[in-house]
Amino acid sequence: MQIYLPIADIPVNVLVVLVMGLTVGFISGMFGVGGGFLMTPLLIFIGVPPAVAVASVTSHIAASSFSGAISYWRRRALDILLAAVLLAGGLVGTVAGVWLFTKLRSLDLLDLIIGLSYVSLLSIVGGLMVFESVRAIVRSRQGQPAVPRRPGSHSWFHGLPLKMRFKVSRIYVSTIPVALIGFVIGFIGAIMGIGGGFLLVPMLIYFLRVPTSTVIGTSTVLTLVTMAAATILHATTNHLVDALLALILMIGGVTGAQFGARAGQRMSAERLRLLLGILVLTVGFRFALDLLVEPRELFSLRIVGAGG
Amino acid sequence: MKRPLTALMAAALVACSAQSAFGERLISSLSTHQVLVGSNFTGTELVLFGSIERDAATATRRGGYDIVVSVIGPRETMVVRRKDRVVGIWTNAQSYTFDGAPSYLAVLSNKPLDAIAPAATLRRLEIGFGSVALSQAASALGLQPPGEFREALFRLRKERGLYREDPAAVTFLTPTLFRASIVIPPESEIGNYEVDVKLFADGVSIARTSSALEIVKVGLEQFIVSAARDHSFLYGLATTMMGLMTGWLASIVFRRD
After folding, report:
1. In this predicted complex, what is the ipTM?
2. How many domains does chain B contain in total?
3. Contact A29/A256 with Cβ under 8 angstroms?
4. Which of A105, A108, B50, B170 is the most buried (most CB within 10 A)?
5. What residues contact residue B13 under an 8 Å CB cut-off, 6+ apart?
6. Do B76 and A303 lie within an 8 Å CB cutoff?
7. Residue-averaged pLDDT of chain B
8. What Cα–Cα distance (Å) separates residue A266 from each residue in A77, A259, A271?
9. What is the spatial distance between Cα A258 and Cα A112, in angstroms, rounded to a whole number?
């Protein structure tokens, strides 16, 4: 069943997009991530212009993170105060990200920067995940107890001012690194069309030592608000949000996420992390191919406005 | 949509008729003058019927008649970019801007253009891929856009069915009655399209007539496009609310506790 996307200006098969939404939703539910890092590339590969893909996926992530946030809220598994400080930085980062997105688009550099960011970010994060989880699996095979990596009790930023006590997470840290982490996630998310959960969760655990009981719920709140803000900003500044595309993705995404979450509970954390790492690396590799292999068609055409 | 179709066609026939200095009159009519693009739009095909009217004084043409139908969509500013390897990475390097290339171009005829009229005649009448103007700036300076970018423009538009040169799209039903099929692919720009019909005999253009067709977005399609453009903040807000609603519904439908 073909449907014509009004903003992307291309006809697509509804079933293909729905299945993509389901699959990415399943994966995101299974690993507890937003799935934007998979959805944006998939849309680009089926022919949606990169700028429209990034802008539309932000609203899809807002949808999936909202249903996540509700279920964490019911279980009281989120730290509102920590989320608020992260958000203070996150919203500034989102505004800065959308500004740079618009700037790069007018300089014709957007597609290249999106490609390069995906390659570098995904290969680093994916590589680290695979490395860490293989090491942990090997260690447990050898009968040694899995040693969770704990950073030193006092990092350099523990000396920073503006300390705050986050009661729910039982941590006492400066608000500066917290807001900074929020800024980085909001900034990257707006440019790349990702929620950043797969970056934020490790950062919160390793740098701030947020306990696992509140980390995912808190990260979901940040994702929700930054992505909702990014949707509105992308719609206002670039007119690139395709509501029809977003709706199909959302319906597939939130449904798939429910089944993914159930499948994920039956797997060990290390194995899940290895699988996610391999997935992240594969997407990064696919982007690298596009940049490194001579394309079949060297020319591309874009309509920039009505002519005389 | 029950219109008095016959009356409309009669009006169109009268409006589109044109007397030539050579005695032939060319009359044409399109099967529709408006193409509606909804969310289920997957392209369409229009039919143009035409007739060559002769009177008793008209001389017989030994070579017979030839018809060229040119359909030209709204002109747009298009940027064609070429990728080059820069420090090992394939990225857009050079580009050329065509300010005023037709977003749609169909050149339909009953036989290959070079068999209908000499190249110089085709160029003067701006018929065919080799003659149509693509850039005002370049034309003003009497220049042609660089060859490889021009070829790339034609190739990329042809791949999507937006440019088409078909020497078999016009068929003569009788020696003076013809039909042409105009394919409108799904990606066609909205706007006004000129349909220009030219009659040739013995390599000379002897009559012409033109009409127009309009492609408009309707329904949800039109609503989303105009909302995104004219009320962008509300549109963004609505899209976000739609996301929150979907997420909330999912959390209720799939609630497990």
Report:
1. 0.77
2. 2
3. yes
4. B50
5. B27, B29
6. yes
7. 84
8. 20, 12, 11
9. 34
Instruction: Take residue B215 and report the two structure tokens written for it.
Output: 């492609």
pLDDT at A231 over 80: yes
A-chain CB neighbours of B251 within 8 Å are 66-67, 70-71
Query: What confidence category does residue B157 fall into, taking pLDDT thresholds of 50, 70 and 90?
Result: very high
CB spacing of A307 vs B217 below 8 angstroms: no
pLDDT tier, A145 (very low <50, low <70, confident <90, very high otherwise):
low
One domain for residues B69 and B82? yes
Q: How many CA atoms lie within 13 A of A133 on its CB side?
A: 17
Reported confidence tier of residue B18, pLDDT bands at 50, 70, 90 = very low
Q: Is B192 found in the same domain as B106? A: yes
**What's the mean pLDDT when you consider all of chain A?**
83
B225 shares its domain with B201: no
Interfacial A residues in 205-244 facing B (CB < 8 Å): 228, 231-236, 239, 241-244
Query: Do B155 and B252 sit in the same domain of this protein?
Result: no
Contacts of A3 in chain B (CB under 8 A): 39-40
pTM over 0.80: no
Residues B231 and B176 placed together within one structural domain of the fold:
no
Asked if B232 is an interface residue toward chain A (Cβ–Cβ < 8 A), one would say yes
Chain B CB contacts of A260 under 8 Å are: none
Grade residue B248 by pLDDT with cuts at 50, 70 and 90: confident
Residue B17 has pLDDT above 50, yes or no: no
Find tokens 């739009």 and name the residue. Answer: B41
Instruction: Identify whether residues B200 and B249 lie together within a single domain.
Output: no
Range of the domain at B65: 5-214
Q: Looking at the partner chain, which of A232, A250, A295 has a beta carbon nearest the beta carbon of B90?
A: A295
